[in-house]
Amino acid sequence: MKSQVQPKLIIHGGAGSSLHGKGGLESVRRSLHAIVEEVYAQLLQGVDASVAVVQGCQLLEDEPRFNAGTGSVLQSDGQIRMSASLMDSASGHFSGVINVSRVKNPINLAQVLQKSPDRVLSDYGAAELARELQLPSYNALTELRLQEWIQERQDNFKSTMAGVVAEPELLETSNAGRGTIGVVVLDAYGNLATGTSTGGKGFERIGRVSDSAMPAGNYATSHAAVSCTGIGEDIIDECLAPKIVIRVTDGMSLKEAMQKSFAEAHNNKRDFGAIALDATGAIAWGKTSQIILAAFHDGEKVGDTLELPDGTDVGCTL
């Protein structure tokens, strides 16, 4: 076992264009900070990185205002299909499920698949796994997401995606859907892990696959770990999470890797965000969108990215 190090943690609840109509800055902050505090307390008790990641993802999936688990957006046919993945530096394994329905916490299936020879399952395979595990059928639908879908149906689905955060005020201004949740952890033993979960972008074509169940949007090694949020197709086109991790592996600092990757993303007119940790305990976030709903624990206190000055695209703390 490695010598004890100071655990670190960063989580996100999506990225988008503003906090207007999203329950207010303080309510989003309370949700994120409470989850950070709960997960960090477990890290101080010595839980492994992947266990802490799963716990954090479960808490975010269970928070109806975020687009993952309960509160997931509806696809074009009015159904909820969720995707999630987990990667653990200790095992080196990536696992995930794509477009699964009727489960409460998709991240739990990704956790089970960590030890499977078949580690990424699509809709039918994920449903069969849920049956094998005897998971109870669960309806993730909320009234707000249903009303959001009804409004879009009346407008012939002109919006390309659903709202990033589900709040009553959102129903009048649903045009900023970058909804994903993610957790990145450095545990007391020096292991890194990351998990990402989403309900998709909303109103999408049936069968569309999110970056959240691909290494492009969720990747970790012993050097760094990254979870992404935003327009999934943009994240896939940039292969964002592995790009950042590989740059750290090749000798860049995490901050340098984030800055270079997001400068490229700006040039390519991408719309997304990412959170990251490296093996030294550096915490980082980046965005090309206006906001990223992220909160972190740096070993001393909880902080967040909810009130950044305009033009702040990448941040890093040790």
With strands numbered from the N-terminus, the spatial order across the biggest sheet is: 4-3-2-6-5-1-11-12
Structural class, by secondary structure, is alpha+beta
What share of the residues does DSSP label as strand, in percent?
A: 15-25%
The helix-strand sequence is EHHEEHEHHEEEEHHHEEEEE
Write up what this structure looks like:
- With 318 residues, this protein is α+β, with helices and mostly antiparallel strands.
- The chain has 8 helices and 13 strands.
- It has helices at residues 25-44, 49-61, 106-113, 123-132, 143-154, 232-238, 240-249, 254-267; strands at residues 8-16, 82-88, 93-100, 120-121, 181-186, 192-198, 218-220, 224-230, 272-278, 283-287, 291-297, 302-304, 314-317.
- A hairpin with a 3-residue loop joins strand 7 and strand 8.
- Helix 1 (25-44) runs antiparallel to helix 2 and helix 7 (240-249) packs antiparallel against helix 8.
- The longest helix has 20 residues, at 25-44.
